[in-house]
Design goal:
5-stranded parallel beta sheet, FAD/NAD(P)-binding domain, 2 domains, flavoprotein, FAD/NAD-binding_dom, alpha/beta, 21 strands, NADP, EC 1.18.1.2, FAD/NAD-bd_sf, binds flavin-adenine dinucleotide
Length: about 350
């Protein structure tokens, strides 16, 4: 019986695992994929700039750092397991069932399951799937593979804007089409993208052309006038968002928002006592659907779990440096930093 079982090992689940250790909880983390990292696995080469205090870092490095941190208190981590069902037992504990028929037992649950099993929304054009083996992409894992190519990006969300900006200067030409005029993402990034790419709004992909197995040109159609334009293309990247896998959440009796995301209280508790949620899976008035938001929600949820299990517990963890587990490591780090400072001074003189 675990104090807390966390479903999903993206940024929310990994950070919550670490934080649960800080709060002395016996924790288990369960992930559907064979690798940890959640959506960051979709953008291992993208440089992440907006996590507080962290220098610009590639996605893959952030995953390594999160996994290292999550392992601080030796949690149990299970991969390749799809949790399909949660049942509240008469004693108030939970039994979780995975796709292989195995069971996990826990006093509380933290949903850090993002959009569910991440499934990219596919292009709704007949026969488009035959190009998935060649040059129709739903994610960008290697920027270099687009070097000197003419790339069409379809989509208007954060990720589409980011990929467009990453590809400018690498690809020979970047064309972005979106069915609306507005783009998601930071204003600066959107402005930068608009100044660097060939933009078509409100346009959508009407047809993919390719004699052989690869797309060689694409017809775009204006959403209002139906005016068509055809572009020669070497690669198409589609980012039309992700499908939300809400069945599992609904079956658990959780109150969901209209868009299928989980409604939470200010301490990240769902409508079901003992089930908490953090990260992209939640919706609330102050929602920040970013990695840093997932961290705050994870810590808040774990503090909620702690108080749920022990109402006499303090509302939040003491500042991290006071944790017994860190005492020796704190000393080692201080010495390492002293040596570094000395070396810097010597180099300077
Ligand atoms: C292309 C792209 C670029 C982005 N760039 C940035 C950026 O620069 N900065 C930023 O802050 N944010 C960025 N984001 C957003 C950021 O990645 C997400 O906000 C973040 O990953 C959310 O973390 P999470 O842990 O809540 O969910 P996720 O990362 O989605 O992780 C959820 C995990 O739960 C697992 N899971 C789901 N259901 C189950 C189940 N039933 N059983 C077992 N496992 C399950 C999934 O497999 C997944 O691994 C970007 C997103 C994308 C798509």
């Amino acid at each position: 019986m675990y104090d807390l079982t966390i479903i999903g090992a993206g940024p929310a689940g990994l950070y919550s695992t670490f934080y649960a250790g800080m709060r002395d909880l016996k924790v288990k983390l369960i992930e559907y994929n064979s690798e940890l990292g959640g959506k960051i696995l979709f953008y291992p080469e993208k440089i992440i700039w907006d996590v507080g205090g962290m220098p610009p870092t590639p996605g893959a490095t952030l995953i390594d750092q999160l996994v290292n941190q999550a392992n601080t208190f030796d949690p149990t981590i299970c991969t390749n397991e799809h949790i399909e069902k949660m049942v509240r037992e008469p004693d108030g504990t939970f039994t979780l069932f995975n796709d292989k028929g195995d069971k996990h037992y826990s006093k509380t649950v933290l949903l850090a399951s993002g959009h569910g099993i991440p499934v990219m929304q596919k292009l709704e054009l007949e026969g488009a799937d035959r190009f998935e083996v060649s040059n129709l992409h739903y994610t960008v894992t290697q920027i270099e593979s687009f070097r000197d190519k003419r790339v069409l990006i379809s989509g208007g969300g954060n990720a589409a804007v980011d990929w467009a900006n990453e590809l400018v200067g690498v690809a020979k030409e970047v064309i972005v089409c979106h069915r609306r005029h507005d783009f998601g993402g930071h204003e600066k990034n959107v402005a930068h993208m608009k100044s660097k790419v060939e933009l078509r709004t409100p346009f959508q992909i009407k047809e993919l052309h390719g004699e052989l197995a690869a797309i060689d040109s694409v017809t775009l159609a204006h959403c209002d006038t139906q005016l068509e334009e055809r572009f020669d293309i070497d690669a198409v990247i589609v980012n039309h968002g992700m499908k939300m896998d809400g069945c599992f959440l609904m079956e658990a009796g959780l109150e969901l928002e209209a868009d299928g995301f989980v409604r939470v209280s200010p301490c990240m508790e769902t409508s079901q006592p003992g089930i908490f949620a953090a990260g992209d899976v939640t919706r609330h008035a102050g929602k920040l659907q970013l990695i840093s938001g997932a961290f705050v929600e994870g810590a808040t949820a774990v503090n909620g779990v702690k108080q749920y299990l022990d109402p006499a517990a303090t509302k939040q963890a003491y500042v991290s440096s006071h944790n017994e587990k860190f005492k020796q490591r704190n000393q080692e780090i201080k010495i390492e930093h002293k040596h570094k400072d000395k070396r810097k001074k010597l180099e300077f003189t």
